[in-house]
Every structure is written in structure tokens, then in C-alpha cells.
Design goal:
Layout (H helix, E strand, L loop, with lengths): L4 H9 L8 H30 L2 E7 L4 E5 L4 H30 L5 H33 L14 H35 L2
Antiparallel strand pairs: 1-2
Helix pairs in contact: 2-3, 2-5, 3-4, 4-5
Length: about 190
């Protein structure tokens, strides 16, 4: 047994109250919670922005009104629903489990469940964003082969809202991918 000041400092350092890498686990847990909150805000804002995007042109005929609404296109409806599902998941399940990891840093099974669910939500959000991106591209550029005209010259506000909503959703996709990587790092640190 060692004696002296170094032995006493070593004994206090590993006295069983806290593991040597408890600080790193706390940082990972806090970072996980912050990223989840940011992803929740991104998906909720994207869904609300797209869901409230509509524009009417100031001119119309007696029988025809020129308007653009998100629910006229099924791909944009899918985008709104998918953003709603992901934001509900993050609020109801993701953030409480993230708080659990902050309180109990040794919870590995719930971290594995979060990796699986985060991956499913990332796939859903990616599918919705890619469907919306194709519609937004057609709205901006049109398609001369199919004789579809670009509508963004007339419906500027609607197109800006759609594009901003898509950008928010792409940001949330990036954050979900970062959450999957962060959870993998957290699990690999527990196994050592």
C-alpha cells in the first residue's frame, strides 16, 4: 500500500462516489438534450410553416380563384404530417428519455431504443423532405417536357415559405443524424 500525498489524492479521486469519466457522461447527456430540443424546434417550425403556407393572387375571374395551398399536393401534406410525427416523438419520448440519461447515466437499454427510434424518425423525415424538395423544385423551375410552368414567379410568398420550411427540416435531419452518432458514442463509452 502506498503512503504519502499521492496515495491520498489517488484514493480521493476514485472513492466510489463518482466514476472517473462522469463528467464526460454528463456532457454527452446535456449535449443530447440540447440537440433534441433544437431538432424539436426545427421540425415543429417546419411543419407549422408549411402547414400555414397559402397565398391567393389578387386577381381572379368569376369562376376561378388563383391560390396555392400546401394541401393541394399530397407530397407537401406528407411533409407536414411527417414533421408533426417527428416533433411529437421528440417531445413525448425523446426528451424524457434524454432527461433520464442525464439523471441515470448508466441507462444503456434506453439509449439503444433511442438509437433505433431516432433512425426510424430520420428515415421518415428524409423521405418527407425529399418528396417536398421535388415539389419545391418543380414550383421554382417548372418542367418544360411535361408543360408544367414554374409557379414561384406568381406565388412568391408561398414559395418562400415552402423553401424555408424545407431548410428547417433539413437542419432537423442533420441534428437527428448527430443524435444517432452521439448515442453510439455514449454506448461505446459505457462498455469500456
Amino acid at each position: 500500500m502506498k503512503s504519502g500525498p499521492n496515495a491520498k489524492a489517488s484514493a480521493n479521486k476514485h472513492d466510489g462516489c463518482s466514476p472517473p469519466n462522469a463528467g464526460a457522461k454528463r456532457v454527452i447527456a446535456v449535449l443530447d438534450l440540447v440537440i433534441r430540443v433544437a431538432a424539436f424546434i426545427g421540425t415543429l417550425a417546419s411543419g407549422v410553416a408549411m402547414g400555414t403556407a397559402d397565398q391567393r393572387l389578387p386577381f381572379s375571374t368569376r369562376f376561378v380563384h388563383f391560390k396555392a395551398v400546401y394541401d393541394d399536393l399530397p407530397a407537401l401534406t406528407f411533409f407536414v404530417v411527417a414533421n408533426g410525427v417527428v416533433s411529437a416523438y421528440l417531445l413525448i419520448l425523446g426528451m424524457p428519455l434524454s432527461l433520464l440519461h442525464f439523471i441515470r447515466s448508466g441507462a444503456t437499454k434506453s439509449r439503444v431504443i433511442l438509437i433505433i427510434l431516432d433512425t426510424v424518425m430520420l428515415a421518415l423525415l428524409t423521405a418527407a423532405a425529399s418528396a417536398a424538395a421535388s415539389i419545391i423544385y418543380l414550383a421554382h423551375e417548372g418542367n418544360s417536357s411535361a408543360n408544367w410552368l414554374a409557379i414561384c414567379r406568381q406565388f412568391r410568398f408561398f414559395c418562400r415559405r415552402m423553401t424555408g420550411s424545407l431548410i428547417g427540416s433539413l437542419g432537423a435531419m442533420t441534428l437527428l443524424a448527430a443524435l444517432i452518432i452521439l448515442s453510439g458514442v455514449a454506448i461505446s463509452r459505457r462498455r469500456r
